[in-house]
């Protein structure tokens, strides 16, 4: 979720970052500190000189990601087909800022939310290849899904009460009967496989594009080891038509994984829609589209004689 880079969220400003750098890393004290063009919600990010960024959590719930990423990103990077953030240094609380923070290498590119992509099907295939490479990474000692990952990688049942409250709140505004069927299917398709690495937020804002191609993946704050179904949500959040089918074929996940992925996509879209349905027409329309396409996908697969199994899966 983007925000105004000058909003000073959690008391974080460029002036604070300059003070923290000067005190803890004086070798970089003379470098300019500027807000990035597109910022996130969990962390504020500033560019430090030409080759580094400073990333600061905005609340206590996001702090565990600092150590998690510092430990695991260097271990994952050699096995991945595109760049991920390189850890340069770890900062400590100071000057009224209460959390640890990090310095990373700068990654070139525009986010896929705003960067031009000439061939969306090829881009979708590249995203799928990243997800599969991440799933193949060694999970030994990896952080099991839980509170640190906001329960991405765990069963979507964690959000059952919240989802059903959203369904109740949106009664008459979305097709709650069909949506409930999608959610129930997601809960029934329990994960029984070996834990795999997942990113947890494969979304346009975390994919960097250079000359129309996937160049890097950022923000592993919700990453961990568990069920990778949450990483397929981008199928409805970004891809449509031929690009969605290209992603589906390339990522090659089974029908139960897709059922849980539809649940994850539905949960998030319902949650956002319930909060903005009367206040933000643009955001509401985006999430209505996701809900409609998730429901249509579920209906199509459940009604074609495959019992919810995608034809590509049956042919494997």
Q: Report the helical percentage.
A: 40-55%
Number of helical runs?
10
Low-pLDDT runs: 1-8, 305-316
Strand order of the largest sheet: 1-2-3-5-4
Over the alpha carbons, how many angstroms does the gyration radius reach?
20 Å
Mean pLDDT: 92
Q: Specify the overall morphology.
A: globular
The second-level CATH architecture of the largest domain is Alpha-Beta Complex
Strand content range:
5-15%
Tally of DSSP β-strands: 10
What is the highest CATH level, the class of the largest domain? Alpha Beta
Structural class: alpha+beta
Would you list the SSEs in sequence order as H and E? Answer: HEEEHEEEHHHEEEEHHHHH
Fill in the CATH topology of the largest domain: Aminoglycoside 3'-phosphotransferase, Chain: A, domain 2
In whole angstroms, the N-to-C terminal distance is: 37 Å
Name of the CATH superfamily of the largest domain: Aminoglycoside phosphotransferase (APH), C-terminal lobe
Largest sheet: 5 strands, antiparallel
> How many domains comprise the coordinates?
2
